Each structure stands twice: as C-alpha cells, then as structure tokens.
Amino acid sequence: MEKNITTILFDLDGTLIDTNELIISSFLHTLNSYYPDQYKREDVLPFIGPSLYATFSKIDLERTEEMIHTYRTFNLENHDSLVKEFEGVFETVQALHKNGFKLGIVSTKKRDTVLKGLKLMKLDQFFEVIITLDEVEFEKPHPEPIEKALKLLNSTPNEAIMVGDNYHDILAGKNAGTLSVGVAWSAKGRAYIESYEPDYILDHMGDLLKIVGVSV
Fold first, then answer.
1. CATH code, domain with 204
2. CATH number at residue 48
C-alpha cells in the first residue's frame, strides 16, 4: 500500500473507457480508404496509444494530415455507438474523488475527443485537470504532459501515480518520476503491459483503491 499518494493521473482510452473497438474501426476505415484490403485488425493494434500523427506519418508522410482528418471524421461520427464502459471504473474514480485524491487525465488525444468520452461516461465531474495533445509540445512517453498535470494540481512526482494501458503511459510515468500502474485489460494483453515493468498491474480498476489505501 502506498501511503503518500495524493494524486492519480489516468490515460483515458483503453484505461478508463473502452474505446478499443472505436479506435480499431477508425484505423481500418482510414487505412482501407487508402490501402484497400492491406490491413487487418491485428495489424492496427500497435497503432493504439501513440498520437495519430506519429502513426500515420510513418505510413505516408505526404498524406498524414489527410489521413488524420479521415480518421477523426469517422471516429467522431461513430464515437457514442462504439464506446463502452469498463467494469468498476465509475465506482473507483468516484471513490477516489470522494476520498480527496487529486485526479487528472493525461491523453494523447485532442481535447474535444477526450471531453466527449468523459462526458459520455459521466466521468467529467471527477477530474480537476485534463492534459491533451492540444496542451503540450511533446506527447507521452515524454514527461511533459505528466509534469504539466502535476504542476496544475500542485503536486509532485513522488506523491503521484500514472495509470495506463500502453507502453507510453508506463514510460511517461517512469520518465516523470511517478509510480506507474498498468491495466491488465489493455487491448494488447497483460503480458504486453507487464513487459514494461510498471510498479503495479490492475486486474480490475477497483484494485487501485487497495494500492492507495482506500477501504472498499
């Protein structure tokens, strides 16, 4: 149990809300528009996590912005029908908020999409600070997004935890000096997240309460 933790930062997609199907469908729609029948579901799993620019610029630098636009258009049109909740997330975040923890979101998505997801799942009421791709120069795993969130929350790395489902969440936590927590429900699997050696792994979001000493 970590007694000195006051602050918990969360990734959003794949961590607090189940956007995996939305993201996979958005990538397949976009890539099949440009490269018909060349990409399957398993091919796009590595694209979950990094920013859209980081992904599409490696595929076709000249058409990166065009592909991002295609992706975002499909993503927003299908957002509410494909996004689902993860079991125990609302109750856990609510309990952390009720117990006085400072809560923040650190995402590689644009702000409007992050707010859309939080509102859909009624989680927006719990977060004091939201850091998105729009507020930073460098995305995770660079420490800047976490450092910015901590500054706004008046917190320090040694009293904070970063929770996420991808390598860049774990490495961003390590780079910023916070504890890092991986979630076993990562679309890439428990073994994948384990390989980056987070300080903790959650099998259920409620496990986080035990780590920070909140009695259930």
1. 3.40.50.1000
2. 1.10.150.240
Query: Does the global pTM surpass 0.85?
Result: yes
Active-site residue flag, 37: no
pLDDT in tens, 149-173: 999 999 999 999 999 999 999 999 9
- DSSP per-residue codes, the chain: --SS--EEEE--BTTTEE-HHHHHHHHHHHHHHHSTT---HHHHGGGSSS-HHHHHHHH-GGGHHHHHHHHHHHHHHHHHHH-EEPTTHHHHHHHHHHTT-EEEEE-SS-HHHHHHHHHHTT-GGG-SEEE-GGG-SS-TTSSHHHHHHHHHTT--GGGEEEEESSHHHHHHHHHHT-EEEEETT-TT-HHHHHTT--SEEESSTTHHHHHTT---
Does one domain contain both 30 and 109? no
The letter for the amino acid at 161 is: I
Q: Do 148 and 205 sit in the same domain of this protein? A: yes
Range of the domain at 52: 20-82
d(CA 172, CA 174): 5
